[in-house]
Amino acid sequence: MRKFLVMLDDSRECLNAMRFAAMRASNSGGAVTVLAVIPPNEIQHGFGVADVMRAEAYERIEAHFEVYAKWMRMRPKVEPELVIREGDPAEQLLAYLNEDPTVGIVAMGLGSDRSAQNPVLTRLMRDAATLPCPITLVPADISKERLEAIT
Question: According to the model, what pLDDT value does residue 47 have?
Answer without folding.
Answer: 65
